[in-house]
Specification:
The protein is α+β, with helices and mostly antiparallel strands. It has helices at about 5-15, 20-30, 30-55, 60-70, 140-150, and strands at about 80, 125-130, 155-160. The protein has 2 domains: about 1-55, no CATH class; about 55-160, no CATH class. It is built from 5 helices and 3 strands. Strands 1-2-3 form a 3-stranded mixed sheet, covered by helices on one side. The chain is elongated and about 105 Å long.
């Protein structure tokens, strides 16, 4: 999108009667700092375009994490899995036609039933799985995922053996 040839620009802006090798060399030497800033600007725009292209989709988050932690991004060892949230118990009205939830006494020897508020989020919504051979900073990875995921879901980072 941005393409500037500074050597050509110096040549085209210089009047024809000043186009001597010494004058051109001097002006090109003066433009070295501008060329350096221009190269940094191009690199910055490429990084920001990459960051803007990352969405909260699972496939895109996996690509971003694999690219970040494996140099070329060709290895797809980091993956994301959804957690089963069906274990949560919800209270409802009879009109909602849901299966009934039974509460038992201690003497009936049944598994305990725990009911929690929506603010007490014990379970995570998804898990980021990382191979145990990868050395990584958990805080850095947490920050990356939190930066790009949608607001609300809670995630966990776990390792697995290959």
């Amino acid at each position: 999108m941005y393409s500037i040839d500074f050597a050509k620009l110096v040549n085209n802006l210089l009047p024809w009667f000043f186009r001597k090798p010494v004058m051109k060399g001097w002006l090109e030497a003066l433009s070295v700092t501008i060329v350096s800033l221009y190269d940094q600007f191009i690199e910055f725009t490429e990084i920001k375009r990459w960051e803007v292209s990352i969405t909260g989709q699972v496939a895109v988050l996996e690509i971003m994490l694999n690219t970040e932690f494996y140099d070329d991004g060709s290895l797809r060892k980091i993956f994301i899995s959804d957690n089963d949230l069906e274990e949560r118990i919800y209270l409802f009205n009879l009109l909602e036609n849901q299966d009934p939830v039974y509460l038992y006494n201690l003497s009936e020897a049944q598994d305990p039933v725990y009911i929690s508020n929506s603010d007490e989020r014990e379970a995570t919504d998804f898990t980021v799985w990382v191979p145990d051979t990868l050395v990584f900073d958990t805080n850095f990875m947490t920050g990356l995922v939190a930066k790009y995921k949608i607001a609300g879901p809670i995630f966990d980072i776990k390792t697995y053996t290959e």
